[in-house]
Known about the structure:
Elements: E1 6-9, H1 22-32, H2 36-51, H3 57-64, H4 74-83, H5 89-101, E2 105-110, H6 114-123, E3 132-135, H7 136-139, H8 146-156, E4 163-167, H9 170-178, E5 182-185, H10 189-198
Parallel strand pairs: 1-2, 1-4, 2-3, 4-5
Helix pairs in contact: 2-3
Amino acid sequence: MAQITTLFFDIGGVLLSNGWDTHDRQAAVKKFALDLDDFEARHHQIVDAFELGLIDLHEYLTQTVFTQNRPFHEDEFVRFMFDQSQPHTDTLALVAELSRSNRYLLATLNNESLELNIHRIEKFHLNDYFTAFFSSCFLGAMKPDSEIYRKALQITQRSPDECILIDDREANLEPAQHLGMNTIHYQDAQQLRQELSRLGVETSASPSAVS
């Protein structure tokens, strides 16, 4: 087995809570008194374009929420969207260890809309740990399409067998496996630490670590 040099992390469901999943949308429907069926139908019609960066947050909300006059402003809805994000603190602590070790290239590989992705990177200081962010909104490709994995490998100039993808959804791991990448189906921070160790990844900082 090749020595591991690169770790690709999903964001939603691994590092943080999911950014705008069914639970979050249902909470928004309740808070803002929206019609659930109408909102969900409109969301599913354009969510791929939203996460691919083909439409921005304003256009997404125009087509899903503000199709009629509302007793609240768009800024209020956006704040609610952003506030749904919560950190997985144990996993972020593990990532901080990996970052301090200077042994590995750390990058994210995730599906997310532009404004939400940037907000989450900034709010949770992900750029303190990660060198690159391979997000669907930046690359115009999304998991599980194999194109996004190929682009991440090509841009980092890493061979698949020296990389690990960590994701909470098995369907997103399968294309990576087909390309020859190592994968971990994320459950929690403790399980992740064990799986990384099994693949030869050292998770504690060391004075002798080299970049």
